[in-house]
Design goal:
Elements lengths: L2 H15 L8 H13 L4 H9 L4 H31 L1 H6 L16 H14 L4 E2 L5 E3 H4 L19 E3 L7 E3 L4 H10 L4 E10 L11 E11 L4 H16 L5 E8 L2 E10 L16 E10 L1 H6 L8 E8 H9 L6 H4 L2 H4 L7
Parallel strand pairs: 1-5
Antiparallel strand pairs: 2-4, 3-4, 5-6, 6-10, 7-8, 8-9, 9-10
Helix pairs in contact: 1-4, 2-4, 3-4, 6-11
The structure holds 3,4-dihydroxyphenylalanine.
3,4-dihydroxyphenylalanine (DAH) binds next to strand 9 and strand 10.
């Protein structure tokens, strides 16, 4: 074999080793490959030129090799083209001449928007965010919060138990974010001023008015001389910031195991201006949240001396806040992720 045949053999091996793995510029790469081997001034035509001046006795072997090279190059191009066709979809998305799809920026979920707004309002008066676990034990969910073992108050909340066996520590998905109060008080000395946003779970049949997953924001303030007047003023500040300067509040006596005294706060209905409409069921008032002075038993359970410190707590449902603020009529809408619903809140951040 002469030197030319060796070179041809090397080209053939080169061709066979060429892969078209680069997805980006496939069309350009195939064309470059074709020009290199089969173009007018390409390798094959150059070799045919040299072939002319080769001694006759070498022509047979060399001609055969040259033909093999040409066929190898042509086969490779066919192989490339077949590959491209098979991956048509990917290539077309890289075609810069195609019209583009407009980018559809996402937006924050309305519940996040409302939750952030509540956090923001409280952070302006010195509350910081506290977060904790969603799977809680009985102590942090109930016992430390002054729910006696067989007290009917435990039935107020339909709990999803993770572990509930005789003689074992009960573990459940948290039914309220009040459990965060306990964890914060156990681990910090007053003054404590926290806000605890988060997901909660209750074993409820899903309907327009109830869901098994929802969100709450809890606030807790413990210090020397914290009074019910402090609570009331904080509530009024919150209501006005959240629902507008004209908003009025009223407190109704209520019961929660972890607060004494306890109250529920209503705000004047912003939709009818207090005249009575179907949103406020004709009363002119909307129920917003539960609150009260932290029960001395709770402070004691968390290692805080109730003779030295007092505190207030409040808790609200984020879904309800969003419902009132944006007049969402069905709780299920928050979780279905129907774009037609979500897009209505595009403009608010
Ligand atoms: N944990 C209560 C619930 O889930 C809400 C609540 C009421 C929280 C009164 C409080 C409070 O901190 O003081 O229904």
């Amino acid at each position: 074999m002469n030197e030319l045949t060796n070179r041809i053999q090397a080209y053939i091996e080169d061709i066979q080793a060429t892969q078209i793995e680069n997805i980006q510029d496939r069309a350009a790469r195939i064309e470059a490959f074709r020009v290199k081997y089969l173009g007018k001034k390409g390798i094959v035509s150059d070799l045919f030129e040299q072939f002319k001046s080769v001694p006759n006795e070498e022509k047979k072997e060399l001609g055969k090799a040259l033909n093999l090279l040409k066929v190898a190059a042509m086969n490779k191009i066919e192989e490339f083209k077949a590959f491209v066709e098979e991956h048509q979809e990917q290539t077309s998305s890289n075609d810069l001449t195609m019209p583009t799809e407009f980018a559809q920026p996402g937006s924050r979920h309305v519940l996040s928007v409302v939750m952030n707004e509540i956090i923001d309002i409280f952070s302006r008066i010195g509350f910081t965010v506290a977060e904790s676990v969603e799977i809680e034990d009985d102590w942090h969910l109930f016992s430390a919060l002054n729910f006696p073992p067989d007290h009917p108050a435990r039935d107020m909340q339909d709990t999803f138990f993770v572990e509930k066996e005789e003689g074992r520590q009960e573990v459940a998905l948290r039914t309220h974010t009040s459990s965060v109060q306990v964890r914060v008080m156990e681990n910090n000395k007053p003054p404590i001023r926290i806000i605890a946003p988060g997901r909660v779970f209750r074993n409820e049949a899903i309907s327009a008015r109830a869901h098994c997953i929802f969100h709450q924001v809890e606030a807790l303030y413990v210090d020397k001389n914290v009074s019910f007047a402090d609570l009331k003023q904080t509530l009024l500040y919150f209501a006005k910031e959240m629902f507008g300067e004209q908003t009025q509040i009223r407190l109704r006596p209520s019961y929660f195991p972890f607060t004494e005294p306890s109250a529920e706060m209503d705000i004047s209905c912003g939709i009818c201006g207090g005249k009575g409409c179907n949103i406020c069921k004709g009363t002119g008032w909307l129920e917003i949240l539960g609150c009260g002075m932290v029960d001395p038993n709770v402070l004691k359970a968390c290692g805080i001396d109730p003779n030295e410190y007092t505190g207030f707590a409040l808790g609200m449902g984020v879904e309800r806040m969003a419902m009132l603020k944006y007049q969402v009529r069905d709780l299920r809408l928050y979780f279905e992720n129907d774009l037609r619903f979500l897009k209505q809140f595009d403009a608010i951040v």
